[in-house]
Amino acid sequence: MKIKCIAGFASITRDPAASISLYQDVLGLPLYKMDDYRFMDKFPGAHHFGIWPLSMAAQSCFGKNEWPDSVPEPTATIEFELADAAAVEAAVREMKENGQNFVHEARTEPWGQTVARFMSPEGILVGLSYAPWLHE
Predict the structure, then answer these.
(1) Would you indicate the residue range of the signal peptide (predicted)?
(2) Where does 46-124 show beta strands of DSSP type E?
């Protein structure tokens, strides 16, 4: 078997209205409607796939190895790539002005990625990212 790409990713939610509001209204993704399903096809593909241990995610988000009980434990992460670090910071400001809470605001990780993270209504850890190596 030879995997060519990530063919699809969909969040599974108990609250479609909240999820649609986040991905379509707040993040501006051009979602189409088919019955109760929202989607977009041929969106530029994933540039990364990984299996991220929860302890490493906790270290990246909170600076400790344990995920705090006060934040829902994620089972997946998705990161949306922006044009540059300033765009990440601007997106955080805009979303905070509209009431979005962040796990952490924009910061530069030791590997050079600028990222801010928040939890989606369905429990996905969502990142707004600028990874310089993806722009070379």
Answers:
(1) none
(2) 77-81, 104-108, 114-119
Collapsing DSSP states into helix, strand and coil, what is residue 4?
A: coil
CATH match of 16-44+68-135 with 3.10.180.10: yes
Q: How many CA atoms lie within 13 A of 37 on its CB side?
A: 6
- The Cα-based distances of 98 to 27, 102, 105 in angstroms read 12, 12, 15
Domain residue extents for the chain? 16-44+68-135
Q: How many CA within 13 A on the CB side of residue 109?
A: 20
Residue 89 has pLDDT above 70, yes or no: yes
pLDDT of the residue at 5: 66
List, for residues 110-127, the tens digit of each pLDDT value: 989 999 999 999 999 999
Note the pLDDT tens digit of each residue in 16-59: 899 999 999 999 999 999 888 899 888 878 777 778 889 989 99
